[in-house]
From TrEMBL:
Protein name per UniProt: Multidrug-efflux transporter
Keywords: Antiport, Cell membrane, Ion transport, Membrane, Transmembrane, Transmembrane helix, Transport
Subcellular location: Cell membrane
Membrane-related topology note: Multi-pass membrane protein
Spans through the membrane: 73-97, 109-128, 148-165, 177-198, 218-242, 346-366, 396-415, 445-465
Superkingdom in the source lineage: Bacteria
Length: 475
C-alpha cells in the first residue's frame, strides 16, 4: 500500500501541474503521513522509555530530568527552526522542478547551521551548571539535572545537521528514510539505556538467569544513551541526504563556500519568527515548570510523565502536519493555488479526526500510560488526573498543530508565531498561575486544555480565511 513509486508519481503530478482527484490527494496525504506519524511516535516513545527507565530509580531521578526537559526542548526547537528555514525553500524549488536551486539551498543550510549549532552548544555548556538552580530545583536534584543537560549539549552539532538532513528529505517527499531512522533511534536508545542506566545484575529470561553487565550511571546513563542514539542516526541521515537523495545529492555538485545571501535572507525570514516562537514557547514551558516546582517533587515528576504520555497521542497530529508542510510547500512551488488550499483543508480535518480518537484513548488508558513510567502511587494519581483533563482538548490541539504546519509550508511564520505566543503567554500561563495555588497540578492542566482549545480555534480561522496563502507569490 505505502509505495515510494506511488508517492513519487503523485508528487510528480503536483510538480507538473496535473489535476488531481480527491482520492489521489487523500492517498498522497496518507502515504506521506503514515511514515511521518511512525517517526513522530517512535521519537516520542524514546522519551517515554527514558522516563519509564529513569522512573524506576525513584521520584528524585525523574524530577532531575523533568526539571531541565523543557530547556532541552528549547534548544532542540532552535535547531529545528534553523533547519526549516532552508528546507521550506527547498520544497518550493522542488515543487517547481528546480533541483539545482534546491541543492544550492541545501549546501548553504549545511554551512549556516554548522556555525549556528557551534554557538548553541557553547551556550548550553556555559549554563549547564546554574540552570537547575535558576529553574527552582531543590538541592537534592540540581547535580544530576546539570549533568543530564551538559551531556545533552554535547550531541547538538550532529543533532542539528541530522535535523537539517531529515527536514530536507521530508520536504523533498521522502518520509521513509527519516521514519526508519527515528525507529532505529528508539531501538538504539532502549539498548544503550539498558546497559548505561542500571548496574550489573542478573536477569531472568525464560526461567534462565543471565548475567547482564551495566554501567549503573542512572540519570547520566539516560542522557548518554539518548546522545549515542542521536549520533548514530544523525550521521546516517546526513550521509543519505548528501549522497543518495535524487533531489538533494551533493555528490557531484561543486561545493561553493561563499555565502549566497538571497537564500540566507529567505532562511532568516522563515527561521527567525520560528526561533523567537521556540524561545518564547519553551520559555513559557520553563515558567510553567517553575509554577509546578513549588508543588513538590511528586508534582514535578507527574507533570513530566503526563507531558510525555500525552505526546504519544498528539504525535499523529505532528506527523500529518509534516505531510501538510511538504504538500503545501511543493504545491506553492508549482504555482497551484487551488491544490494548495485543498491540501490545507484536507490535512487539518484529518488531523482533528485522528487526534479526537487519540484523546479518547488517552482518557480511557491514562492509568496504564502513567503506570508504565513510575511505581510511585502519588505520581500516578496526579498524572492520570492531568491526562484526563487534557484529553478533551486534543482535537483543537490538532487544529493548531496542522494549521501551523500549513503556514510553515507557505513560508508564513511571523503571524502564526505571534498567535502561538499570545495564546501561550496570555492565556495558559495566566490561568496556570491563578489556578495552581487552589487546584495544584490539576489547575495547571486545566489552564493548558483551555489554552489549546483557544489556539486551535484561531488557527482554524486563519487557515479558512486564506490569509496565509495571500502572503505567498504563486504562479
Amino acid at each position: 500500500m505505502f509505495s515510494s513509486k506511488k508517492d513519487n508519481a503523485l508528487l510528480a503530478m503536483i510538480r507538473t501541474g496535473q489535476t488531481m482527484t480527491g482520492r489521489q490527494k487523500l492517498s498522497l496525504i496518507v502515504q506521506l503521513s503514515i511514515p511521518s506519524i511512525l517517526a513522530q511516535l517512535s521519537s516520542t516513545l524514546m522519551f517515554y522509555i527514558d522516563a519509564s527507565m529513569v522512573g524506576s530509580l525513584g521520584a528524585q531521578a525523574s524530577a532531575a530530568i523533568g526539571l531541565v526537559e523543557s530547556t532541552t526542548w528549547l534548544f532542540g526547537g532552535l535547531t529545528s527552526a534553523a533547519a526549516m528555514g532552508f528546507s521550506v525553500q527547498a520544497a518550493h524549488f522542488i515543487g517547481a522542478n528546480d533541483f539545482v536551486k534546491a541543492r544550492q539551498v541545501f549546501r548553504q543550510g549545511l554551512m549556516a547551521t554548522a556555525v549556528f549549532t557551534a554557538i548553541l552548544t557553547s551556550i548550553c555548556l556555559l549554563i549547564a551548571r546554574p540552570l537547575p538552580i535558576w529553574l527552582g530545583g531543590g538541592e537534592d536534584i540540581v547535580g544530576e539535572a546539570s549533568l543530564y543537560f551538559a551531556v545533552y549539549a554535547v550531541s547538538l552539532p550532529v543533532y542539528q545537521i541530522g535535523m537539517l538532513a531529515s527536514s530536507m528529505l521530508k520536504c523533498s517527499g521522502n518520509m521513509r528514510v527519516p521514519s526508519i531512522m527515528s525507529i532505529m533511534m528508539c531501538v538504539l536508545d532502549v539498548a544503550f539505556n539498558f546497559f548505561l542506566i542500571f548496574p550489573s545484575r542478573t536477569v531472568a529470561i525464560g526461567g534462565t538467569e543471565i548475567y547482564m553487565p551495566g554501567a549503573g550511571l542512572g540519570v547520566a546513563g539516560a542522557a548518554l544513551g539518548t546522545v549515542s542514539a542521536y549520533l548514530i542516526t544523525g550521521i546516517i541521515l546526513i550521509w543519505f541526504a548528501v549522497y543518495k537523495s535524487p533531489e538533494l545529492s551533493l555528490r557531484r555538485e561543486k561545493w561553493v563556500f561563499a555565502p549566497m545571501w538571497g537564500y540566507l535572507r529567505n532562511a532568516a525570514k522563515i527561521s527567525l519568527p520560528m526561533a523567537a516562537q521556540y524561545v518564547m514557547m519553551n520559555g513559557a514551558q520553563i515558567v510553567s515548570t517553575m509554577i509546578v516546582a513549588p508543588l513538590g517533587n511528586f508534582a514535578i515528576a507527574a507533570h513530566t510523565f503526563a507531558i510525555t504520555a500525552e505526546s504519544l497521542c498528539y504525535m499523529p497530529g505532528y506527523g500529518i502536519g509534516e505531510a501538510a508542510t511538504t504538500l503545501v510547500g511543493q504545491s506553492i512551488g508549482a504555482g497551484q493555488r487551488g491544490l494548495t488550499q485543498s491540501f490545507a483543508r484536507m490535512t487539518i480535518f484529518m488531523g482533528m479526526a485522528v487526534m479526537a480518537v487519540m484523546g479518547l484513548v488517552m482518557y480511557i488508558f491514562a492509568p496504564e500510560m502513567i503506570g508504565v513510567m513510575t511505581p510511585v502511587e502519588e505520581i500516578r494519581t496526579l498524572g492520570v488526573d492531568a491526562l484526563r483533563i487534557e484529553a478533551f482538548a486534543e482535537p483543537m490541539f490538532a487544529a493548531a498543530i496542522v494549521g501551523y504546519s500549513i503556514c510553515l509550508g507557505a513560508g508564513d511564520t511571523l503571524i502564526p508565531a505571534g498567535m502561538n505566543l499570545a495564546s501561550m503567554w496570555m492565556i495558559r500561563l495566566t490561568l496556570a498561575a491563578v489556578l495552581a495555588p487552589s487546584y495544584g497540578l490539576q489547575g495547571v492542566w486545566m489552564a493548558m486544555a483551555i489554552e489549546l482549545s483557544f489556539r486551535g480555534a484561531i488557527f482554524l480561522f486563519r487557515i479558512f480565511s486564506g490569509k496565509w496563502i495571500k502572503k505567498v507569490h504563486v504562479k
